[in-house]
Amino acid sequence: MRGASLGMSRDLWNAVDAYLTQTVVRPDGSLEAASAASDAAGLPQIAVSPSHGKLLYLLARVSGARKVLEIGTLAGYSTIWLARAVGPHGRTVTLEREEQHAAVARRNFADAGVASLIELRLGDARATLAEMVRARDLGFDLVFIDADKPSIPEYFERSLEMTHRGSIIVVDNVVRDGAVIDGASEDASIRVVRRMNEMLAETRRVTATTIQTVGAKGYDGFTIALVE
Ligand code: SAH
Ligand code: DHB
Ligand code: MG
């Protein structure tokens, strides 16, 4: 029932997303080129959509973020949005484990004219984050968590260590076709999001909401948390 009803809506979500991208979001040659380069290199089509990329950009701008951390670069599509929001007077750090993804991302950063704004750190983000904490490389204003899903709780804890009051933490892929409500799910990506949600229900360290989304990337959602 879930699959069938979602399937019928998917064409409409895509059409509306395309329309919104052409109007409200505005088409952007560099971002389209980055997305095309990602596809041409055979990378998975799991970057944020244009409207979500622009939401990240707006969150960074509205909050005046100067130091942004992204966990999971892929081809750097979301990174370009974030780096544009931060600009040259800040720092955009992005973490990626796959060399091939990082290579495509670096080319995309250069082509988009933002290479000098971005520090891409190659390696397992769990190790890179531990190293950053050891080096006291902290004080991030916005963190975007979008890498391997089973590590979400670890990334969230790290984000709390590496931010300050007023920082924003955004977590992608937290609804997953509605599977998040399945308490019996054996999918690690679901179980960890449910664990995160239980933590969010209890902690006073953050004030959070989760928004369900439909569009070019299907039915999913993201969590936005304000660090208190
Ligand atoms: N934020 C990107 C999409 C990221 S896709 C965008 O919206 O454009 C997730 C990425 O996380 C993939 O490139 C994957 O290789 C990377 N990844 C997965 N596990 C990782 C890990 N443990 N450390 C670092 N990167 C990881
Ligand atoms: C997957 C990962 C993502 O970050 C995403 O936005 C969609 C799908 C995945 O690993 O399947
Ligand atoms: Mg994602």
Mean pLDDT over the full residue set: 97
Going by CATH, the homologous superfamily would be Vaccinia Virus protein VP39
The string of secondary-structure elements, in order, is HHHEHEHEHEHEHEE
The main sheet comes to: 7 strands, mixed
What's the gyration radius in Å? 17 Å
Give a list of the ligands. Answer: S-adenosyl-L-homocysteine, 3,4-dihydroxybenzoic acid, magnesium ion
Q: What is the total tally of β strands?
A: 7
CATH class: Alpha Beta
Structural class: alpha/beta
Number of domains: 1
**What is the tally of helical segments?**
8
Q: Would you kindly provide a written description of the structure presented here, covering whatever features stand out?
A:
This protein has 228 residues and is of the alpha/beta class. The chain has one domain: Vaccinia Virus protein VP39 (Rossmann fold, 3-Layer(aba) Sandwich), CATH 3.40.50. It contains 8 helices and 7 strands, in the order αααβαβαβαβαβαββ. It has helices at residues 2-25, 29-40, 50-62, 77-86, 99-111, 125-134, 152-162, 188-202, and strands at 67-71, 91-96, 118-122, 140-145, 163-172, 206-215, 218-227. It has a 7-stranded mixed sheet, sandwiched between helices. Strand 2 (91-96), helix 5 and strand 3 form a beta-alpha-beta unit. Helix 2 (29-40) packs antiparallel against helix 5, helix 3 runs parallel beside helix 4 (77-86) and helix 6 (125-134) packs parallel to helix 7. The termini are far apart. The model has no long low-confidence stretch (mean pLDDT 97). Bound molecules: S-adenosyl-L-homocysteine, 3,4-dihydroxybenzoic acid and magnesium ion.
